[in-house]
Amino acid sequence: MIMAARDATRWQLGLAATVAVVMFWAQPSLDPTVGLDPSWQAGLAMARDHHIAWGPDLVFTYGPLGFLQSSNYYFYGQSVLATFYQAGVVAALFLGIAAALRQRHGAPASLTGAFVTIGVTVFPHIGHGISLLSGHSALELAYPELGVLAAFTWASALLLHREPRRSTVLTTCAVLAAFAGFQMLVKISTGLVIAAMALGVSVLMDWRAIRRHCITIAAFAASLPMWWMLAGQRLGDLPTWLRYAGEIVAGYPDGMAAPPLPVSAVEAGLVTLAWAVALYAMVAFGSPTIPRRFVLLTGLTTTFVAKAAFGRFEPWHFGFFLGMMVVAVAITPLPWPRRPFVVAVIVCCAVSIDLSGSPAVREHAIALLQAPVHVADRLITLALPGRHEQRVDAAKKRQRALYAVPDRFIAAIGSTPVHIDPQEISAAWAYDLNWRPTPVFQTYPAWSPTLDKLNAESLTKRTPLVLSRISSTSPATGIDGRLGVQESPLYTRALLCDYKVSGVENRWALFARTDPRCGPLTPLSQIPIRQYDSVSIPAQNGPNTAILVGIDVDPDIKDRLFQGSVAPLTNFTVILDGVVYRLVAKNAAEPFLVTAPASAAGTNLQILAHRIGIGRSANLNQPEVTARLRFYEMRVNP
Amino acid sequence: MSARQTVTEIRLGSQRINRLALAAGCLLLTACGSSTKTTGSTTTVTVTQAWDAASGSKTVIDPYGFYDNVIDKNGIYIIGADIFPGRYRTAGNPECYWARLRSGDARDIIDSHKNSGPQVIEIRESDTAFLTQNCGMWQLVPNP
Fold first, then answer.
1. What are A559-593's pLDDT values in tens digits?
2. What is the number of CB-based contacts under 8 A between chain A and chain B?
3. pLDDT tens per residue across span A365-381
4. Alpha-carbon distance A187 to A163, whole Å?
5. Residue B69 near residue B76, CB atoms below 8 Å
6. Which among B7, B18, B70 has the least Cβ separation from residue A472?
7. How many Å apart are CA A378 and CA A372, to the nearest integer?
8. A527 vs A523: CA distance, rounded Å
9. Diameter of chain A by CA atoms?
10. Fewer CB within 10 Å of terminal CB in chain A, N or C?
11. Which ipTM value was assigned to this complex?
12. Partner-chain residue, chosen from A260, A264, A525, that has the shortest CB–CB distance to B64
């Protein structure tokens, strides 16, 4: 790796990095809470503790090392390892910035600049960053994204070097690639970005260095299985995990796109456009002080980070982009008078997007100022015997008070393996249940037929009990206004057909596996439909039958491009009795419940719709959407 | 992926958002061609009818494409996990009782009310839970 300083000794750098970690490792909340995001974090931690095999038994947007990004205290080992990883990421970012600055400045100036830059950069990475939601649960650092930034700084340090040695170039590319393999097991998308960055650096330094490119790729290819096994996974499961992980990553843009874009997205888009124009101008016109290859790497990183920011536009996702801009500007050898001007422009952009007037600005600032106290508290908690357990017990007690799962359900579950549906995985942790999830353990990322089928088969074969949190509305809704029974149609049918309701109480339902009780799907009718029309849903033939519908939507070119692939501007909707729900388009062809049998009463499977239509959430100067509805009837024995 | 909290936040200025987004989208896309394919034969034809715009007051996805939280069952709901914080309205119901709670305990009340008429309440992010009994449907309403 590049030497960060010529005259500063290693221990001085180490000391400076330690000080940076203590000052900027903002982590105000370490007690797990309930909800969608804390629940997948609990799932990642439990997967490690329960030795669940990633690939055949588990797949998510994070990997088997995903537990490292959570600061919450779930298990002692997880907390210790996460502490090392998170401190390491902050330190690597600090040292990377210092190394890049050292190419043009003296040691004191580069270290000072690194302190200032990391302080500014960490701010938008605190939890929901510039979205500025208040509440402690929203204030955790986004470590995988900071890892991308750290890799960017180290790569930039190399590209900013006037005449790096060939061995230094090779080492940097190989180390970045190896880090990418590790990071991919933390969060898949960030690992892929760093891998592209490593290869990009190798090519930018000399595209003819084929041997180095191959070594870079080999380093990534070797690192992935090595860390996979170190994470306690079987090597034979890696291909399966890669296949399903690819399915998750590929489906994310469509599955998680949440159009329409908020107004801040327009401003963010303008900022991004201005940034892209500036990069293009630097490449086109050149600058004697700014190496073109560094600008190209910045452009490559910008592409990935912008894709992540706009794929599902949320203000804090754009905060990561702003963080990258801050770091890039800080390490770019701009003439001194211009640098403060550019930084001021970025800050103004951030303010105009979301910062102004929000009380959460104060919370973020306080979180940053309190960082040293939190670091001390964390280290003490991990060092003093019994303290970690006390925190965990207290958090579990709080969660149990909120979830209030009926005692009889907990007694019935006992040590029997149980899956939590659809997303409140934290309940399994809070009640010390024997969690045996479906592979996509929260239902919302099962956004393709392959993943839906994987979940359905797992449910049928592996899981004796399902504990379901009942939605606030009927029919049940998922995230972003999805129709609950349409989100994962095969999974839902497996729950209906292979389980019986053991009880419904206090907004929980307990399902127990039983012999298959559904008959085959009997086709009833096929009906073409246009937007703004509705058709009658066939009547139920008695209380022990279900009516299902599959929707073959006819997307046009704009639907294909602007439902997430290029930008999230619109998506399909399904309309039941005049109420509009978001349609999970890739799963729409699989028949889903529109009329449930009596046995589903009180659960998230309950639905009784009379008329159905289709539409779009926004029309991009498109013709009316058309589709074919296929109705089915299915017998469900009580 | 904090979808639930996000939606509450991005509701701010949703109408402006939608118009801007749509205007930008339309400008960008007007020149783009589009293609549709027609569906094939059918075995049964059911007469279709246009939606009655006035039918029902329940809104999950509003006309601008935003997700609006709905509560239409009795129970205690955890803020942030089950429902978004924000402003909710109900048409009311006889014997409607609601309470904003500091914890999951129905007796740990921040504010409560028993009324039969239409009501608007503000569920805050700092609240822990919300209890509703016999109030019918609560609909999240956009911030003014």
1. 888 887 777 888 999 999 999 999 999 999 999 99
2. 225
3. 676 677 788 888 999 99
4. 34
5. no
6. B70
7. 10
8. 12
9. 84
10. C
11. 0.86
12. A260
